[in-house]
Amino acid sequence: MRPWRLALPLLTAAFALSLWTLAVRLPPPQWFALFKADAGGDIAILVLQQSLLPRMAVSLLCGAALGLAGTIFQQVLRNPLASPMTLGVAAGAKLALGLATVMGAPLLSSVGRDGIAFAGGTLAMAATIALAWRRGLSPLALVLGGLVLGLYCGALSALLLLFKEHDLQGLFLWGNGSLAQQGWDVALALALRLVVLAGLAALLLRPLALLALNDDGARGLGLSLLFARLGALAVAVALSTVVVSLVGVIGFIGLIAPALARLGGARRIDQQMLWAPIIGAALLWLTDQAVLQLGAGTTLPTGAITALFGAPVLLRMLPRLRTTFPQASNAPRSEPRARSAALVLAGLGLALTAVLALALTFGRTPSGGWSFAWGDGLAALLPWRLPRVVAALAAGAMLGVAGAILQRLLRNPMASPEVLGISSGAAFGLIVALFVLPAVGRHQQLFAATAGAAAILGLILVLGRKAGFSPERTLLAGIALGAMLDAVVGALLAGGDPRAMLLMSWMTGSTYAVDETQMVWAAATAILLLASVPLLLRWLELVGLGDAAGRSLGLTLPLVRLSLLLLSAALTAAGTLVIGPLTFVGLMTPHLARLLGLQRAASQLAASALAGAVVMVAADWLGRVAAFPWQMPAGLIATLIGGPVLIALLARK
């Protein structure tokens, strides 16, 4: 293939849609009037001059900037998964802008949106690199750190939006990448910044080419690795944060454009730096024109819809993706020291007991003070506290076990319902049921969420099998599918439907609406699903040895994978129905179990269940008392708890 064979169809389709959009709004004989400075009072011409044409220019510039940023990230870090989205740069910039907006206009006027976004993106990327440093910046460690920080920054942004809704009422639509324009100011600002940054990137061509070599070879050719990497990363961060500061988060282009450029035949860095921006510009231009054709250009954020077009293309090309980046060889490979499973599980059991006692008996009084409830006072409070505590416990246990099963099934330490998009699949299944069926009961919700989660996990397994279950390809497929489903959710939420606003409340992981019926349902579902796990322990023990070893030991691999797939999908769906898809439990608790020295399947799954229950019960209690009398969603609190814990563990190990 040649890169132009990918770029030309995209550009042609975008150009054709643009002509059609213009023709619908203004007859072709009048198009010459668009180039006149004075519209002559014609509203149609004025709208096209000040809205549609700037929007086209902004889409081209943003796509080019993100394509170039992704290329530089991937070259410097030797990681085909590196992008503003996977490194946490976009999420850090968005969080910094949200904090600056809450703090007031003086900070924005003194530092500027670009400076604040650059600072936030730089800090997020620096934290990501620091987390992966001890593993030699290996691709998996780097992307794991970026995803953790990105999710954590996203939770903090959602928390800001929860408490400062009036100050940040436009943050949700803007945060998903809205390209609607009211003049040429944004386009001109983008063009000026892109010209400067592209010029700096051009000066880095030789250092970037040498960075593809190993470190000794690059030093032998006279390259200063530290300055080359820092300079290239600064340019990439600036390209990413400029887009975030002016139009919002459009993170998926930075991942897919360089991948498509390489798939199209761009092997050298100079070819990639030429064709990735062109492909990125074409993708975003085509996506935005498609949004306009749907008549939803003012309500649907183009940045979210981009994933609907980009993810299927990437998934189609995924089996042909060649990972040509050299892998780090100095990463430590030591395992945590094995400990007594009985002692570890007993400790987790005591921790859960203590957290349950705290959540049920200790809380805030109507006047805002603190008090323990005993006897009749506790009996009066139990109908309010017990349902949400039991529901949080059940959901945490189910998600913890689901994450442990996925990591063993895929032999991938980054696998979890959140990272692989399985939680998003469950949410998507529930959304389809809510918007299609006239009435949706609890059993219908569970069935729809399970079907969505199972479909996504099945598709990931199919794609992973074609690629030999390569961790990079499996994760790339999960990221693409998760982004695509999140785009659907974001588009629905941005549409203003009343059901969508209810979904927004559910997706933050709130438990304060759980009643006794929902408590019984959550507890019964958790008991039923978790009781089936011991029946599959032998499979879970052997599946991590590899396909050849599994077959030699008598495993029927298709049956094993299907059974584990359905169980993990059901656990994810049931947990997601209770606390939403925004928790960290499925990713964090299996790592905690391994770091505690539990390697066998039975002890690891039991520890994951107990740790997940502890995290979610503690999150529910903190959400109830931290901002009393207001309620904070347990799902967001779990992310705020789990993020620092997992970041600390990643930094140590």
Automatic annotation (TrEMBL):
Subcellular location: Cell membrane
Matching InterPro entries: ABC_BtuC-like, ABC_transptr_permease_BtuC
Annotated GO CC locations: plasma membrane
Pfam families: FecCD
Origin: domain of life: Bacteria
Alphabetically ordered keywords of this record: Cell membrane, Membrane, Transmembrane, Transmembrane helix, Transport
Ranges annotated as spanning the membrane: 56-73, 85-109, 115-133, 140-163, 183-205, 217-236, 242-261, 273-292, 298-319, 340-362, 389-407, 419-440, 446-463, 475-496, 519-540, 630-651
Biological process (GO), any one: siderophore-iron import into cell
NCBIfam families attached to this UniProt entry: PRK10577.1-2
Family: Belongs to the binding-protein-dependent transport system permease family. FecCD subfamily.
This protein's name: Fe(3+)-hydroxamate ABC transporter permease FhuB
Organism, as annotated: Bosea spartocytisi
Gene coding for it: fhuB
